[in-house]
Amino acid sequence: MKKVKIGLMAIMMLSVGQSISCAAQEPLGWAAPLTTTTLKDAIMFAFQRDPSVGQQAAQVGIGQAQIDQARSAWMPQLSLSGSAGHSQTTDSSGSLSNSTTWGMSLTQLVYDFGKTNNAIDQSEAQRNSYRYQLMATLSSVAEKTALDYVEVQRYTALVQAAQQNIVALQSVSRMAQLRAQAGLSSTSDELQTRTRVAGMQATLQQYQATLMSARAKLAVLTGMNASDYAPIPTAIAIKDTSLNDIDYSLIPSVLAAKEMESSAQYGIQKVRAQYWPTISVRGGRTRYQSSNRSYWDNQIQLNVDAPIYQGGAVSAQVRQAQGAKEVAATQVDQARFDVLQKASVALADWLGAQARIDVNKQQVLNADQTREVYKNEYTLNKRSINDLLSVEQDVWQAISSQINSQYDAWTAAINYATSLDNLLPLLGIEKNTRATLPDLN
Q: Where mainly located (predicted)?
């Protein structure tokens, strides 16, 4: 593949209005405060901040320089030379002692049976692979950021649910206190509810600590510490549950492996061309300065460099290149395998989470209805405090399970979209930032 189509321009989404090099050179600091952020904004901030993006972008620049180096073989090679010191030449006309020489030579490659062209093609394939690896790096950074974003949302919801459960338990505690004061129940009921409230407060503290950790992790990734996080876009939800139509030709990791396979094939052809001669034209003009006579030596020659025997070195190089080609071919299969495996697991997780969500909804409804019935029966002395505390525990379990199922589904959706390289398009990042992205060509 001589030229890479980068239709979505994903490989250039490295910052908002800044180049990759500038973003890579900015020192990492603690997160700046921000009122609110969205998942899309968080990912864009992460692109600008994550060192792996700048590192892979620099690799693309190296690949382009390698192409320029390979192409330079077709350009005229101009050199200057000079020397000083004693040099004696003896021929039929006598001896000539030279003290100083200087001159200029020009060499132009004429034909080398594919050595240079294959070297150029090989370098271009490597550069294209680096570009696709950059796309894969962007997807990886986006996935990492999105997963951390989901964890912040998860524990924010769990903290709110735990706070609501504490309020509900405190309401039960007040009921028990009033009944104990009226002589309708023993003080042990009140003590039991206080114990349960204290246990739930400990759970709340645990969730709050985990939330702080998740927010700190996301803040380091994005460089922004938002006070509020917008809901996860529904666009990333999995709609197609079939794995039979995966288009591997659009997935960067597979494309990068294919380009490396092409590079290895060009490498074989380049090495095989070593069996053939290299033809070039060389012209030069050299001044020889001596004590008794000075003169110019002008030359223009057609040079043919043809290897006869190199001890089997070329044959060994060919075998090495063929081995590299076989390794590259297996890497293409491995990339496809990894995509299919990740997509399959993510899809299974999504379907499982969706099934749990449906069950959790019914659990929450049933537990909430049971709570109201038990409260009424407790006031009529038909239920014990243990029954009331037990149903509050059921409500908490149902709500927390529902929250975890919902965010497990979002985690699976993010993994699935990333495996198919759809996460960024689903968030609309390419279309909205194309005009502000730096040019890597």
A: membrane
CA 157 – CA 163 distance, rounded (Å): 10
Within-domain flag for 1 = no
pLDDT at 188 over 60: yes
Other Cβ atoms less than 10 A from the Cβ of 148: the count is 21
Within-domain flag for 4:
no
| Average pLDDT over all residues of the chain | 84
Sheet holding 295-305, edge to edge: 77-91, 94-111, 278-290, 295-305
Q: Is 182 exposed, middle or buried, given 0-12, 13-18 or 19+ CB atoms closer than 10 A? A: exposed
List the domain range (segments joined by +) for residue 52: 10-436
46: CATH = 1.20.1600.10
Nearest to 130 by CA among 268, 7, 9, 4: 4
Q: For the purposes of burial, counting CB atoms within 10 Å of the CB of 393, is it exposed (0-12), middle (13-18) or buried (19 or more)? A: middle
User: Is the dihedral angle over the CA atoms 303, 309, 313, 317 positive or is it negative?
Assistant: positive
Element (H, E) at 225: strand 224-229
Q: State the first-to-last Cα distance of the chain, in angstroms, to the nearest integer.
A: 16
Count of residues making up the chain: 441
Beta-strand pair 278-290/224-229: unpaired
Domain count, the chain: 1
